[in-house]
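A quick aside before the break. I want you to see a complete sequence-to-structure record at least once, exactly as it would be stored in a machine-readable document. Don't worry about memorizing anything.
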Amino acid sequence: YRFGRILYAKELVPVICNCPGRRLAADKACSVPPGGKTMIRSRNQNAARLDTALAGICASSSICRCELKKQRMVVFRLMACLFLILLLGGCGGNAGMSAYRHGDYKEALREFKSERDPEGDFALGVMHYKGEGVARDPGEAVAWFRRAAESGHAGAQYNMGLLYLRGEGVQKDRREAARWFRLSANQGYARAQINLGLLYAMGDGVAKDLRESVYWIRQAAEQGYGKARIYLGGMYARGEGVARDRKEAARWFRLAAGQGYAEAQVYLGVMYARGDGVEKDPNQAAVWLRKAAD
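That is the input. The structure line, written in tokens, reads:
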């Protein structure tokens, strides 16, 4: 069996809400501030922390342990309501985004132009690229993306890389694509990290360097980007840029499979069927292959 093909993440980053802590991307790809870490923990981690806190409350106030579950649900609901209030409040003040979400592109264009900041320039780039409120014009989109990118906007830098990669609105230039992907990748943008890693894997726009490829793909994989986890698993399976390690390959495939990626589920199922990198287990093989089929 083979471990997939090299593909580029092709989607342009869409218009996003510029309120702190929120990004709306096509497949919810992870992105963190420069040098930062995501603040979102898994539900199980949050649940464990909450159980510990509530257990302490129970011990100090003689609350029956059977009430723990009720208390936990109440706190979760309060936390969810508070998050929603903060989220809506943070976005409500952006007139351009409000107009955009209501389909009033003419007003959105006016507001974004008046903002004169990287977020507004980025949004204008997206609208010109998609032809929202204006005639579709990749060249004009590039001009707005470039303004935002040169001000350090990671999403705009990624889009610049993608447009140079495709030759849309600019002359196709793989080296320039790699340069923009690197700027975005250095800010922790997962899509840029995987694209830069793939360029290094193929020696496309940069000198071929499988170790450098592994480095950048791992950066995206460790942020939870499923496609990167699949590629990294494949590199461990083949021994490309790293020592061949089928157990480590299975670990990365399992992480991606748990996110619902059918490709990873197939790889993991076959590995269980063959006892390759994992203990042979026909039942687990059937579970993962069935998930992929569904």
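Two observations worth writing down. The radius of gyration is 23 Å. The chain is about 65% helix and 0% strand. We'll return to this after the break.
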